[in-house]
Input
Amino acid sequence: MATLDSNRAKSRFGVAYVRAVCSQAGVGFQETSPDEDVLAVDGSVEFEIASARVQVKCTSQFRLKGGPTATWPIDESWRQRWKRSGVPVYFTPGS
Output
């Protein structure tokens, strides 16, 4: 039986979390195949009018205390890929 390493497990958890939030909101979520992640985009939230591309990150390294904010360093290669996108890419923590 194969198991995912810690980073891949967190990645899967983050996408599953976003998918669950989308389901509760009544919108679809289309995941980008890991082999096709050329724009540093994990998926698209499928709203009625248009889709929104999103990059999802999940970590166990910090806790939110005193407010609903957190920061995450953005890899420069992600930023360069997002610039090539014809539509905005949203960066969201998975949990």
